[in-house]
Specification:
The protein is an alpha+beta fold. The longest helix is centred in the first third of the chain and has 20 residues. The chain has a two-stranded antiparallel sheet with strand order 1-2. Helices cover about 40% and strands about 20% of the residues. It starts with 12 loop residues before the first helix and ends in a 10-residue tail after the last strand.
Length: about 90
């Protein structure tokens, strides 16, 4: 600790954590290239599918792919061999 540390303005640790989280989220959004609603859409689809079929959480894949000039919503569901009804 330096003798001049008391002259530096102290930044709230919560504010520092919030800034870091914003940076991480911005990086994730730019890296994935997909819309923000995809994780929520995936969760909701999984909930609906589980009403009818027992599937793992990793069974539902949701992505946006380019098809020429259009964005296409690509949804893939890996169904189990035995389709046991949830009831």
């Amino acid at each position: 600790m330096s003798i001049f540390d008391f002259l530096k303005p102290k930044k709230n640790t919560a504010a520092v954590a919030k800034d870091r989280l914003r940076i991480i989220i911005a990086q994730e959004r730019s890296a994935s290239g997909g819309p923000d609603y995809l994780p929520l859409l995936r969760r909701e689809l999984l909930e609906v599918i589980r009403k009818y079929v027992n599937v793992d959480a990793d069974a539902v894949k949701v992505d946006v792919v380019k098809d020429g000039e259009h964005d296409v919503l690509d949804i893939s569901v890996a169904l189990p061999e035995e389709r046991a009804a949830v009831g």
